[in-house]
Amino acid sequence: MTENKVCIKSLTMPKLEEFLVSMGEPKYRAKQIFKWLSQNAKSFDEMSDISKKLREKLNEACYINDVKIVSKQVSKLDGTIKYLFELQDGNCIETVLMQYEHGNSICISTQAGCKMGCAFCASFDKGRTRNLTPAEIYDQILSAQYDSGRKVSNIVLMGTGEPLDNYDNVIDFLRIISDENGVNIGMRHISLSTCGIVPKIYELAKLKLQLTLSISLHCPINEIRSTIMPINKSYNVETLIKACKDYFKTTGRRISFEYAMIDGKTDSKECADKLIEFFKGFPAHMNLIPLNHVEGSPLEPTPMKKIKQFQNYLIKNGINTTIRRSLGGDISASCGQLRKKYIEGESR
Ligand code: SAH
Questions:
Q1: CB 45: neighbour CB atoms within 10 A?
Q2: Is 94 a catalytic residue?
């Protein structure tokens, strides 16, 4: 059905304009179509301010991507909703919609599976990982908004997948979602999280986007970090932190660091001292995440009392440190728990 057709929802405004002009249409049509797509239009026939002739032409040349809700779990604790979406090729991805006082945040996936292989994360699926298209990333937001009736105000690229391993599609998605002609969520309301693909951090810096870059640091000691995050063997802690400091210099944007508290691995005084040595005087925000236990993993979370001590020690030494509140605990919707249960039943 979609073979050889253009995925129109994957096109940024400039690309959509270019596409319409190449069809002999005026540029302004792009705005109308872009708006319809942002309102979750499922067919060209819905686009009532566009001539029938153009609608037919579009139907011939393009398709409108859609994702299907396979399952939906609503947390009784805090109203968090976890969606399992099926893509057009049968692959499945997860998306989590969270309610906070300041609005609705959505945690979206950027790949089906992940190649990075972090020891504490359930998303690893080396052989079958594939990049999501901009439309497939975009559709998680459109569908969740439409289904829940909640308007999304913040986006975190912290679901399954490594955003910087799907760089071009993620950047196009960011352009689409922040475009004033569509959903229009400002970059300042978007966080992108990476395990530390250093060359891509430099590439991203050049774009000077106003988003928040989050780094999954988890440990400042190479010998330990390499055992839990294989990416550290390619780009070690020093290289990564240098990239972060350069990123800040270029963009002026403060960086957030995610730090999973893993019992006996990342919670030692030695780790805290190393963090202080690296970050003293640098405007970093350290976000401690009590490790979420993943079924079958030997790694355990640090007890909360010790996490608080770790936090106080960092704060006392000038590092802005918070402890992440975990939502959706009853539906396995927390960090690192996505994409585990259904995977064995998946047909491809
Ligand atoms: N690949 C990106 C995006 C995933 S974001 C990245 O690595 O940043 C998901 C965040 O949750 C990352 O910081 C990840 O390291 C963290 N995470 C994964 N598994 C976790 C677990 N079991 N407990 C706590 N945090 C976890």
A1: 12
A2: yes
* 335, two tokens: 């960090």
CA 107 – ligand 1 centroid, Å: 12
Which atom of ligand 1 is found nearest the CA of 215?
8
224 HSE (CA, 13 A, CB side)? 18
What is the pairing mode between strands 92-100 and 81-86? antiparallel
Check: CB of residue 161 under 8 Å from CB of residue 196: no
| Residue 25, C-beta contacts closer than 8 angstroms, at least 6 positions apart | 54
- In DSSP terms, which residues pair with 103 in a beta bridge? 100
Cα–Cα distances in angstroms (integers) from residue 34 to residues 60, 106, 180, 285, 314, in the given order: 18, 22, 10, 36, 47
Q: How far is the CA of 230 from the centre of ligand 1 (A)?
A: 13
CB 82 within 8 A of CB 296: no
Specify the ligand 1 atom closest to the Cα of 294. Answer: 22
For residue 101, how many other CB atoms are within 10 A of its CB?
Answer: 4
Predicted TM-score (pTM) of this structure = 0.95
336 pocket-lining for ligand 1 (C-beta < 6 Å): yes
Residue 326, pLDDT > 80, answer no
Topology of the domain covering 6-63: DNA polymerase; domain 1 (1.10.150)
DSSP per position, 77-111: TT--EEEEEE-TTS-EEEEEEEEETTEEEEE--SE
Mutate which of 195, 235, 287, 325 for ligand 1? The one with the most ligand atoms within 8 Å of its CB, which is 195
- Can you give the residue ranges of every domain in the chain? 6-63, 68-347
Phi, psi of 246, rounded to the nearest 5 degrees: -65, -40
pLDDT bracket for residue 343 (50, 70, 90): very low
25 given a catalytic annotation: no
CATH architecture, domain defined by 68-347: Alpha-Beta Barrel (3.20)
Q: Per residue in 205-241, pLDDT tens?
A: 999 999 999 999 999 999 999 999 999 999 999 999 9
